[in-house]
Amino acid sequence: MTLRYHLVIKGGTLCTPGGPIVADVGIREGRIAAIGALGADAHAAEVIDATGLHVLPGIIDAQVHFREPGFPHKEDLASGTAAAVLGGVTAVLEMPNTDPPTTSAHAMADKVARLRDRARCDVGFFVGATPDNASELDELEVLPGCAGVKVFMGSSTGSLLVADDEALAAVFAHGVRRVAVHAEDEARLIERKPIATAAADPRAHPEWRDAETALRATWRAVALARRFGRRVHVLHVTSADECELLATAKDIATFEIPPQHLTLAAPDCYQALGTRAQMNPPIRDAHHQAALWASIASGACDMLATDHAPHTLEEKARTYPASPSGMPGVQTFLPIMLDHVAAGRLSLARLIDLMSAGPARVWGLAAKGRLAVGFDGDLTLVDLAAKRTIRAADGASRCGWTPFEGREVTGWPIATIVRGHVVMRDGQLIGDAIGRPLRFVETLAAVAPP
Predict the structure, then answer these.
(1) Is the Cα dihedral 450, 226, 359, 67 positive or negative?
(2) Is 307 known to be catalytic?
(3) If pLDDT is split at 50, 70 and 90, which confidence band does 341 have?
């Protein structure tokens, strides 16, 4: 008997670009080869009965910090990608503020090499911009595995910082791919730091790093993008002010919102979680949270991403503001957002646009983000009715905690499939680590023969 497929998923509700259908999916050589009623003769090495489940295109988290090299006690590529697939995530984009930072061809090659036999999902890496490497960014952004250029306009975790307009202009002047920016104004952060120091309490975090700090940097980033004709992506947008500005700049700018900011709100989160709620930019009050949800409803927001940024509880226990900013999130990304779907805050179709199609579209991921013939066999099977309780004890992240400890959610990932390989099923990791570097459409075009 000749096997027509390596894997068949039968009888699930497929979330296709044309809408949901109950059908089968056949995957061959890592790609989706057929969709429809494949019948009893759909000979496959493995068959999964997905009756009662929804089959989503693989979830993509386009902003994670897996801390390797430099900080393996917090996270590394093995533990971070394990957390990803346990949460239904099939691909991630990893940030450059490691030690050493990813600011050179050597550092990029080193990160790509570290994936082999260790990563459980596919991974792309951002190269970090500095005041010294701007002239090299044209070459760095087309390296294998490179997702694009990341700029820290305001200081956060790590040493990367490009704060003044002259240095930022040099970054925007070199290269053609979309620039990702952490948009906080460094001068205002320095000016307002005494607020945090005097308070010695994380409840001051959104006051120190206020909405004006974010708006100033976002305005500067959009102005530079227009000046140089360079597309820009604003990471982790957290304020009503930024949403209003960016809604008028869709010709040049895209943006993302973190699930934490849609779920937690000041001041309650700081009262309940202390420094565990501390991240940059901060979780803000209900006024800003409502604006984020409105941006999702209007279609202005392009994608969601977690900014998964683990620190140990010992590090988080330092007195604010010496406590580091960041929280884990890649494993809880999909459960938290499925719970919002169950509560009626967004549709499943909009979730897929924000968490699969959107990231693939913004960053030009080749063959990712759609449940369609010819695309990679990246699928996330979910039970929309399943009720589960989020527990740190079930997490794979080395930091060992979650801001959502004890939260009951409705909707849960049942299986994660990466290029036709079942890598998670029923909460268990399966098989070898088969993750590889992501490919990017613009990179392929840049290196293609004439």
Answers:
(1) positive
(2) yes
(3) very high
Q: Where in the chain is the domain with CATH 3.20.20.140?
A: 58-363
Give Cα 69 to chain centroid, integer Å: 19
Give the lowest-confidence range in 39-48, 63-72, 236-245, 422-431. 39-48
CA distance 143 to 136: 11
Classify 5-55+375-388+397-429 by CATH class: mainly beta
Architecture of the domain made up of 58-363: Alpha-Beta Barrel (3.20)
Q: Whole-prediction pTM value?
A: 0.97
The rounded distance, in Å, linking the Cα atoms of 288 and 273 is: 19
Q: Which member of 307, 353, 376, 383 is catalytic?
A: 307
Residue 302's identity, in one-letter code, is D
Give a three-class secondary structure readout of the chain: CCCCEEEEEEEEEEEECCEEEEEEEEEECCEEEEEECCCCCCCEEEEEECCCCEEEECEEEEEECCCCCCCCCCCCHHHHHHHHHHCCEEEEEECCCCCCCCCCHHHHHHHHHHCCCCCCCEEEEEEECCCCCHHHHHHHCCCCCEEEEEEECCCCCCCCCCCCHHHHHHHHHCCCCCEEEECCCHHHHHHHHHHHHHHCCHHHHHHHCCHHHHHHHHHHHHHHHHHHCCCEEECCCCCHHHHHHHHCCCCCEEEEECHHHHHCCECHHHHHHHHHHCCCCCCCEHHHHHHHHHHHHHCCCCEECCCECCCCHHHHCCCCCCCCCCECCCCCHHHHHHHHHHCCCCCHHHHHHHHHHHHHHHHCECCCCCCCCCCECCEEEEEEEEEEECCHHHCCCCCCCCCCCCCEEEEEEEEEEECCEEEEECCEECCCCCCCECCEHHHHHHHCCC
CATH 2.30.40.10 in the chain, residues? Answer: 5-55+375-388+397-429
177, 141 Cβ separation under 8 angstroms: yes
